[in-house]
Amino acid sequence: MAERQLIQQINMNGRACTLVIEKGCITEVGAPDLIPEARDSVWNAHGLLLLPAFRDAHVHLDKAFPSDRWISRTPVSSLFEQFKLEKELLAGCKDRRKELAVKTLEAMLASGTTEARVHVDIDPDIGLSHLELMLQLKEEYASRMTIELVAFPQQGLLRSQSTPYIREALRMGADLMGGVDPAGVDRHIELSLETMFELATEFDKRVDLHLHDPGHLAVYTIEKMLDYSAEAGMKGKVTVSHAYGLGEVDSGLVAELGSRMAGEAMDLATSVPFDTAMPPVPLLAASGVKISLATDHTGLDAWTPYGHPDILRRGRLLAEKYIWNDDLRMASVFQWMSRGSLELKAGDAADFVLVKALNAPHALAALPRRQLVIREGIPVAGSLWQGNSGFAAWRNIPERSEWADEYDR
Predict the structure, then answer these.
(1) Which residue of 15, 19, 169, 324 sits 20 to 30 Å from the alpha carbon of 393, by its own alpha carbon?
(2) Whether pTM exceeds 0.90
(3) Which residue ranges form the domains of the chain, and what is each CATH number?
């Protein structure tokens, strides 16, 4: 078996080069016509553009509806009615939960996502059944995708009396402690956050909170989260997801809060919602807050029929929302949907996506098909992937797609 994989004629941020990959890492970035050694396996990318592999910072795999039948939604007037509706609509999908989750994971991989933070519903009604499935899928997909699991009390940690179930979930192997609206759902900000951080500390877990509460209530909740994070010594281990309310208050207040968040290394995940306010990403980023993009909804579900598994689409939506039409700001979006860079160097993990595009801004605008998705130097998805695993995945991969239309419209 070849010891090295060479990928020639890659377009990396505007320059042609050859990547040399060994043991899952980039060991050399050489000339586009780098002469291989006898031991090398070689594949020619013929100018395909390299993008960093994508990370989905917030997604649900246990909420998907089947695509082969339409499940009608009815209007609701409150979040609690939505919780009830979701329970009712998902009941009919119970026997297909693994099938639907696998379909979602494959769609995410085909879109270039090789890392995902998955929130898993837990409450007294469903117990730990969803988590048991997600732990199984995490293991099954370990060679293709890095999956983090959040123990998520969708119905409210206090409201649904889910604390003992969450404690067991963390004991079973959930990676993060989740929560939702300490004020709007649990009706007790202090006790809800105190319970969350106590459990996180007890099991040495990180925290990721769904925050839908509006305006100044959201600001106050984040301020309390910062206090608890500092008291627990959890700097860099706390995420706030959504935080719609930050899009409803004065920009000066957001900038001040953003500075505190940056000081405690509290990051923010946003799915770039179009049906509600959203946190001002440019302002928070300028304040030093780490921003991560997320799909949240990957297709049809009880919350929206407009979900999609492609995180690159979310990046384009962000650029469209802020009218970022210039190359610099369009290219900047990639930092929020990946851990990697538009330019890999020796020593970097060989995690990247190859597409037919001229440059990163073009890829953001055109949403080209992901030709190959590479994780640790091995193809794991993409339109050119032949389904093989391990180093054998490089065998028989055609050098260019024969499809006439390279772009998703």
Answers:
(1) 15
(2) yes
(3) 4-53+341-394 (2.30.40.10), 54-335 (3.20.20.140)
